[in-house]
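Figure S4 source data
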Amino acid sequence: MGFKKSDLIIPSILTVFCYVVYPYPEIAMWSIFFMASYSAIANDSIQTIGTFIASNSDKKWYYLWIFMGGIFLITVTYSWYNYGGDISYGRLASKGLNEAPDNFKFLQVFAPVALLIMTRFKMPVSTSILLLSAFATQASSITSILSKSFFGYFIAFFIAMLVWILTTNIFEKFKNSKPSRIWLPLQWVSSGALWSAWIMQDMANVAVVLPRSLNYDQFIVVASFIFFGLGLLFYLRGDRIQQIVLEKSDIIDVRAATVVDFIYACLLFYLKEISSIPISTTWVFIGLLGGRELAINLRKKNGNYKDALKMIGKDSLSAGIGLIISLILAVSINENMRNELLSLF
């Protein structure tokens, strides 16, 4: 995993910091936001901008940053202006979270640090379960969330298998040819649309601790911090968790990246339409990449389906460990959720 001293030093310092500030609501609120905004976007970068980074590795990092950062500013400003200062597109209110917390527990402040640690160890995590559930005043049906998430994983897996079983030979035929000029704008448009859709749905995860109606100064602080945090993420080329994308077959090809983003966006729209139950989009994306990888290795003459299965198992195990840790933290913080789960037994 490329273990470094900073993997323990930085989280240790942040943990002590969390313990010191959690009794002070105003300081704790902004501390949670600053840590959660970077850690959540860094972890979810594999599913929103991961293929974009991979397929544009030959571009200057600041071109990618300005493009995606600009989409972020436009998307979040629209919500702030049209939803009375709310940057979550009304999702917090729809979940019964009409007011920001006025006091905090230590584990609530620590939650984004846990997310940061898991990101450093390349564990894709459901940020909705880890961050949003930690502050919920009403218990969510966690079994429904998990059931829909696993349904999303399997439907993404099999759709990806079907698509790439049909198209792998086509991609292989043109693999060594230079992509047509039309593919680059198509990929940027599809990635930008996917990124904007993620912001609309998951900005609630980092805004849950903030006032529901941000004034101008608060909005500038929030938007600026995330904008420049994106700059750091692009400078680091997605950081360590980006490896989950980079190890997949031919994902740096702009044509493959465009198809991945397009199918993923369609899947998220479908899953959003069939029910209002929240879903871990991370599991959908892992399923999409897994099905694609297996299909490619089954169709290639020199493919090795055993290596593909091993990679799928590794990704699923990492996501599973992240999910278990997320659930433990969420249940430890949220008494309603804990009582709901206990009632099942």
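Figure S5 source data
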Amino acid sequence: MTLGTLFGWLAAAAAVAFFILWRRALRSKADAERTAAHSERAVQETRQAAAQNAAYLAAVQLAQTEAVLLISPTGMVLGCNPAATTLFGPLDASGETLILLTRSTELEQLVTRALAGETDCDQQVTLTNEGQPYRARAIRAGEFGAVLVLQDLSTLQRLGRARRDFVANISHELRTPLTSIRLLIESLQSGVVKSQDDYPGIFQKIHSEVQVLEQMAQELLDLAQIESGKAIVKLVSTPLQGLVAETVEHFEPQAAHKQQTISMEVPPDLVVLADAEKLSRALGNLVHNALKFTPEQGRIWVRAVPIDGDVQVEVVDTGIGIPPEDLPRVFERFYRGDRSRASGGTGLGLAIAKHVIEAHGGKIWVESTGRPGQGATFRFTLLADH
């Protein structure tokens, strides 16, 4: 082999080797670029996930009505949601201990137990100067410390008391008419009533007591429908004068028993969008309330006038009135005001009337000076059917 041929072979071999190395370098570069791209995507996905988690946590904190505090293993408060900030004030940027922020040794002891590994860290505590009750739950969060959750119990306790009072009230209110009816029937059966002239009066008393029971039963049924969500309101064109006239006529015997007068002033051309049955019941609750708190020979008016494109209805009485301090709460469920006005009933009638009127797209309110004889005026609005 000549020297030239050898150099030719060596050059060809070098070219092949260079080509192979060049292809490997390209593949290595492509692999590196793919790896870098995957890494970049992984970093972006991680950042997006972190941002989503942060947004989710922020949304949960904003939506959380209970106060939530994050506590470090050393007892430092790491963060508070808005409810906790409202309760205790803003967290110091330099950090605060739980006892310094909350001023509560009970909470500090509860969190200390949770950090020590105890699982049953749930108790009722009293916070704020008003002695407001809270349910406090401390949950260990591993190496991150603990989470403290505070639930305001004042509303639940008030509702519980109201329901207990309601059960006691309804038991008493049922017993009174039932006992009266039983005694009247026993008088008829035993022959104590000799003159047949006395029969109409006795039958009228029995009828009045039955009406009381019917009213109570209807209010309980209405409440059950409201709480179950089955109280569907169907708005149709309804002449208001006829509806009011039927309601007034229904209560006239009860008014006559107390020598009261019910008057109505409703123009014949007023037409509203209403569920006649439910609106009649709400209006009946207001009229019944007026009769109950108006003394003998008192007066009740039911009026309606067009106003601002709607119709305003009012029930006015000459009764004992409503004390100013009771006005904001008269429409609360189970609320019956002070004992001087508590002359029977379930405490549901006005709450049901408010629900019905608001379901009709209207509003309801009451005005009273609280002076006997000046009574109270209940007003509500309805959509007019033009």
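The radius of gyration is 38 Å. The chain has a mean pLDDT of 80.
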